[in-house]
UniProtKB/TrEMBL annotation:
Domain TauD/TfdA-like: 137-361
GO biological process, one term: carnitine biosynthetic process
Domain Gamma-butyrobetaine hydroxylase-like N-terminal stretches: 7-90
Keywords attached to this entry: Dioxygenase, Iron, Metal-binding, Oxidoreductase
Cofactor(s) the protein requires to work: Fe(2+); L-ascorbate
Name of the protein this chain belongs to: Gamma-butyrobetaine dioxygenase
């Protein structure tokens, strides 16, 4: 709860003090734009009902007070009074110390390697996740935190992997179809459809936007080899940064180009850095796929040798066993990866026996939305 408020800078800002002596300042125009009253935001969906042009340019705070632990503000020249919950203000405070480090990782994301994850792979039962919101919450939360998770007990029927997507979102159909087969083929249009081993990679970096989640489900597996593995791209990128900050800067500053032309009617192209950072330096995404990497033409001539050295070292770290978590999918098992962070790979497998997997794409917005809805429902129930 708040214990004190003071208006500063001729009403253009306000300084708040909470009971634990935490302090934060807010601008009048920010508070007015984010007012929570039913004239500013729709009570039904929370969407804003006004535009920035509806807010007077000379908006200021005529009066501010702590009322029952929350903030009450009267704005001028509108003479409008609005209440702000103290917890909401604390959660949305922007007056805080900023990290100067490039590549910082957002809250709730936990980098991992083989040592920390090999014996604690997050997993859940499909049946339990279907019937128990708490189990589903745990599984979705693991994907948010670690970027991957395994699900057991899936029906071994063609297309059953879409049932996992139905738990939280929608299948993203592509030129490969609603789902695609992952098994050895004659003259395949993608090297994934062979028995060759595949380097750890993110899928479809040639799309814009890239599918943000991928699911691979096993229907049959009697081959020798063919183990699946996952690598946390954020953990590898941080390792590269610690070892060689300049290499990290090059891979995050200059875009790589990716292309795919598997059939005559498909020409997919995109241009993004292998390590993508936000304007504030936050690490947002990893794109790494040697099979679809196109010629780099955006890197300056004088930087190209160092860029390729950085690319080589990044690839070496990605293949370093200390970052690799390995498991073999059995029929009825599936795993999901955050395709903007976690790379997946496959070991080479024998030409005898059968290995039949199916894959599909979906997106994180649905997963994070479902998870947030479950969390808020459980929080409200607890209150």
């Amino acid at each position: 709860m708040l214990k004190n408020v003071s208006v500063t800078d001729d009403g253009r800002t306000v300084e708040l003090v909470w009971n634990d002596d935490h302090r934060a300042r807010f601008h009048a125009v920010w508070l007015r734009d984010n007012a929570l009253d039913d004239k500013t935001r729709s009570p039904g969906n929370g969407q804003r009902l006004i535009t920035i042009l509806d807010i007077p340019a000379d908006t200021n705070i005529a009066q501010a007070a702590v009322v029952n632990g929350d903030l009450s503000v009267r704005f001028a020249p509108e003479n409008k009074t609005v209440s702000f919950p103290s917890a909401w203000l604390r959660a949305n405070a922007y007056d805080r110390a900023r990290t100067a480090e490039l590549g910082w990782i957002g809250e709730g994301v936990a980098p991992w390697d083989k040592q920390t994850m090999q014996n604690s792979v997050p997993r859940s039962s499909y049946t339990a996740a279907t019937h128990d919101p708490a189990v589903l919450k745990g599984w979705l939360s693991a994907v948010r935190t670690y970027g991957f998770a395994v699900m057991d007990g899936l029906p071994t029927e063609s297309g059953s992997l879409c049932r996992i997507v139905d738990l939280f979102g929608y299948v993203r159909e592509t030129n490969y179809g609603r789902w695609f087969e992952v098994r050895a083929e004659v003259n395949p249009n993608n090297l994934a459809f062979t028995n060759l081993g595949l380097q750890a990679h993110t899928d479809n970096p040639y799309r814009d936007p890239v599918p943000t989640l991928q699911i691979l489900a096993c229907l049959e597996n009697t081959v020798e080899g063919g183990e699946s593995s996952v690598v946390d791209g954020f953990a590898v990128a941080k390792a590269l940064q610690r070892e060689n900050p300049e290499a990290f800067r090059l891979l995050s500053s200059w875009p790589a180009r990716f292309e795919y032309a598997g059939t005559s009617d498909v020409r997919l192209r995109s241009k993004r850095p292998m390590i993508e950072l936000g304007p504030d330096g936050q690490m947002l995404a990893i794109r790494f796929n040697n099979r679809s990497l196109a010629p780099a033409v955006d890197v300056p001539f004088e930087d190209m040798p160092a860029y390729y050295a950085a690319y080589r070292r990044f690839a070496e770290l990605i293949e370093d066993p200390r970052f690799e978590v390995t498991f073999k999918l059995e029929p009825g098992q599936a795993f999901i990866v955050d395709n903007t962070r976690v790379m997946h790979a496959r070991k080479e497998f024998s030409g005898t026996g059968k290995r039949w997997l199916q894959g599909c794409y979906t997106d994180k917005d649905g997963l994070l939305s479902t998870l947030a809805a479950i969390e808020e429902t459980r929080k409200e129930a607890a209150e």
